[in-house]
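In this section we walk through a basic example: taking a raw amino acid sequence and producing a predicted 3D structure, encoded as discrete structure tokens. The instruction is simple. Fold the sequence below.
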Amino acid sequence: MNEKISQGKKLRNAISENTPLQIVGTVSAYSSLLAEKKGHKAIYLSGSGIAASSMGIPDLGITTLADVLTDVERITNVCELPLLVDADTGWGGAFNLSRMVKSMISSGAAGVHIEDQVEQKRCGHRPNKELVSSKEMQDRLKAAVDAKTDPDFMIMARTDALANEGLEAALERAVAYEDAGADAIFAEAVTEIDQYKKFSDQINVPLLANITEFGQTPLFSKTELSEVGVDMVLYPLSAFRAMSKAAEEVYTEILEQGTQETLLDKMQTRDELYEILDYHTFEKKLDDLFEK
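The resulting token sequence is shown next.
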């Protein structure tokens, strides 16, 4: 009998088999199915996405671990792809971090990233971010790594230091975070492609590039990032932004025109929805169970 591969191992395998691995943001269980059906190899649950989509609030450290776990479980209950989760600053001290890691693993996540901002954090592409010391972040990482119940579960260290302290300080933090046990490095708000090469040259663990729209980082291509040693490319809110814009258009059209008929060619059909959800298999199961 083959031993079941853990979600953490699935993520590590996906990183090693794809150069680089593209990780798309999925803000709901259904969008995770869409990504899986389209052939993606890994998915991401953004803290900003949870705040906006699930709760209707800004990404300012307001969401709790429980809020995030609710969406993690909804996604992992229906999708087999390895899920990387935004864990903000870890929601507290060493024991909170330990509880977070254990809860993420038991909820089916493949990995988390923890950042070096203060607990009252801000979006990584906004001004006035405040960082904890490198030592405090290393302590966060040590607590998280110590809590693993799956040795392959990935603890990724995100550093926001580039915008606040400059490249050299950010590189020093990245090396220190790897020494503290980080399985990967997430360099936030990078502004020049060659900066990724400097991170890649300094560390011996996988490197993630966050290619989010309308932020500080240019929309570097997969090829460009591969050439400077990036191992993972993250698109945290691309689909969510497109969904939101499309929804606004629909709401406006219905209000102003009194009908949605002109938008039908932009909509997913009922049959297409049912195919993603495997609706007919569920329906047949009901028929078989209660056949008269």
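Looking at the output, two observations stand out. The two ends are 39 Å apart (CA to CA). The mean pLDDT is 95. In the next section we compare this with other chains.
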